[in-house]
Amino acid sequence: MTTGSYLDKTFVVENPDARIRRDDDLHSFVTLSASEAALAGGNVGDFKRIPVDTKIRVLGTRIGPNGVVYVQAATDANPPTTIGWTSSRNLRGQFVNETLGEVDPTDNDPRGATAAWAKGNFVGQKKLVNIVDSTLEVEQIALETLPAYLRLVAAAEQSKVTVALRSGFRTYAEQAYLYEGFKNHKAGFATAARPGFSNHQHGQAFDLNVGGFQGNPVYDWLSQNGPKFGFIRTVSGEPWHWEYRPEMAAQLAAKGKHKLAGIV
What we know:
Low-confidence stretches: none
Helix content: 10-25%
Number of helices: 5
Strand content: 25-35%
Distance between the termini: 39 Å
Largest sheet: 4 strands, antiparallel
Radius of gyration: 21 Å
Number of domains: 2
CATH architecture of the largest domain: 2-Layer Sandwich
Shape: globular
Strand order of the largest sheet: 1-4-5-6
């Protein structure tokens, strides 16, 4: 069972406006009572905030309707004392690449939330992992790819390069939504494959935080190191699109290459 990777870590508050949110409504903020205002030197009704540079532990997470990850902060002590809920965006280094737990298949529905497809064929159910992406929203990747992805991320960090996810596994419904938007020329929709035919539906595709081709630091690092960890480029014109294909990657790495033949 993959639990939250954040549970054994210490985080530091960076935002001077790190407001504490209500447990029963994360869109609302907790305010100072009269006694708290006197101690804090503020006014009754002021927002309660976690001071900058406070070290905290994270006891739990929630995903808001807007896709933002909220964390239940506690003192960095043993045992910890709960402080309250706040946005993960308030943390130094933020919450990128933290795992939030697994998503198990509940049935064998070929169009369900964990159904995998390849080249128009339903290929079974995947156990997924919720993981925080480069924008601090939640994506999903196949559990079987998680160890390799985290090794890739850790190796990049050693080289002072941040590798983070932009898009991972997509459900049939998500791909259908993207395809309909693309087909009907709706604003904001990019080219999208038909549902069942997207590389993002088979559990091996990762869109990463790559901002260009050669000369982009993340792309350059991945080009040199991605295949060592099983990741290669498979789609022309998309420098951000990498797939976990360890056997192909080993063959390419032996030749000093990082992408399939014909990929530009």
